[in-house]
Amino acid sequence: MKIIDTHAHLQSKEFDNIIDEVIQRFGIVEKVFLATSYISDIEKAYKLTHNYENLYFFAGIHPHHAGEFKIGDLDIIESYLKDEKCIGIGEIGLDYFYNYAPKETQKILFSSLLDFAIFHNKWVSIHIRDAVSDSIDILSSKLDLKAIIHCFSGDFDLLKLALDRNYLLGIGGIVTFKNSLIRKNIKHVPLKNMVLETDSPYLAPVPKRGHTNEPSFLQYTLFELSNLLKLPPEEIAQITYENSLRVLNDK
């Protein structure tokens, strides 16, 4: 049995001195996709993926950093898209929970980067927090987009759009949280659209809450999904693994 972690931040400072140990603990996790948030973060992920065969990266600007974006950054992202280890653009999106950047700035950058991804025929990893309505408005006009909705919340309107467009939906540790919406609605997410993720070092699953999350903890999400969906973990692992390979094989 093998699985893929489709969203992690192993280039984060939390892993600076322990990355070898973390990778040695991968267990059933065969590959990890790194999401990035700003230009120097992309560079760090790029270097990391070229040091470890089983790591890949998205090149993106997180909505928290939308206000820092400069027009020349687009050229830098474009240069990374040519790299063999780069699988797309991300994470990008909208975050109205913290509002570190003005909403209009976030929306302009998000729309522009989606257009950029479509032009280059690249996958995107999308972050949406407290911004479902505006995200749907923007995504609705973006045809031919290849997308993973990272940390899918369980929102039905977003689910409808995702299924209509055949997006992938990232399921992580939140599904193990007792009162989470995604836990309540997970039975409505088709396996053919599901991929697994940790969002390491954030959102560690039960029973590791309070710990620094890492790819090896993805097993807890897998086994909890097995309990919730009443399916063998091997079946969920196989289908989500094949779904994740869509990203690698069409980059």
Automatic annotation (TrEMBL):
Keyword Metal-binding on entry: yes
Residues annotated as binding a divalent metal cation 1: 7, 9, 91, 199
Keyword Hydrolase: yes
Domain of life: Bacteria
GO CC, alphabetical: cytosol
One protein family per Pfam: TatD_DNase
InterPro entries: Metal_Hydrolase, TatD-like, TatD/YcfH-like
Residues bound to a divalent metal cation 2: 127, 150
Keyword set, alphabetical order: Hydrolase, Metal-binding
Any one GO molecular-function label of the UniProt entry: DNA nuclease activity
Family membership noted in the UniProt record: Belongs to the metallo-dependent hydrolases superfamily. TatD-type hydrolase family.
Protein name: TatD DNase family protein
Organism, as annotated: Desulfurella multipotens
